[in-house]
Amino acid sequence: MAELEARDIEMEYERRDGTRVSALEGVTLAIEKSEFVSIVGPSGCGKTTLLKIVNGLITPTGGTILLQGRPISQNSRDRAMVFQDSSLFPWFSVARNVAYGLECQGVPAKEARRRVQPYLEMVGLAGFEQHYPYELSGGMQQRANLARALVVDPQVLLMDEPFASLDAQTREMMQAELLDIWSQSKKTVLFITHQINEAIYLSDRVVVMSARPGRILADLRIDIPRPRTLAVKRGDAFRAQEDRVWQLIEQQARLTMKATQLRTEGAAG
What is the pLDDT of residues 128-138, one digit of tens each? Predict the structure, then answer.
């Protein structure tokens, strides 16, 4: 039995003029326990929409999400999300931010502080417990976000382009740190990114989505041994995987551009 499964997910939106837009069409995906799966695809293909459906933030117009074989439809503690932008409360210390999810679950403050500390150490923020978000770098803020997601002990960790706002060097270092944290936590991860080499470096599998309406175009196994260092990105096997994924996405991106152009010309005409 898969840890997480999406079966025939459909998602339609209604525009202001009453017309319907299909964002996702027949998306079926199964993820095993402790597996790291990334989703890539052209802009607007529905990657983040799918992640929000998995998290229970959006209700699909069709299909089912299952966790360990049980249908799920609402947000709950068995799934935790790390967003692209820092979602830390500026008036809380690092430790209080990380403990926030536990407090929402009714965990007493003293017990929450005790449970937070190992995760601060895991993400490299020991010694920064009483700092505030404005005192942290972007990478450190995302480490705090990750610790806050992990401390509630979810079955599945959902990550929506968590490193997109970081500079290139910090992003590379955070990728390596995430793999180290994942190897310790053994969480099941569904990761959204626009960066192909990031997806390949992190993942057991890379799922490529088509242009809107989003469908699964390819589900590729990444046969690069673990543990991985950043040096693997310079290897021939890695580059071959990167070329393979890019060819699929390039084709879909061109279709998206053409569709946009036709809509623009139709509106102008």
Answer: 999 999 999 99
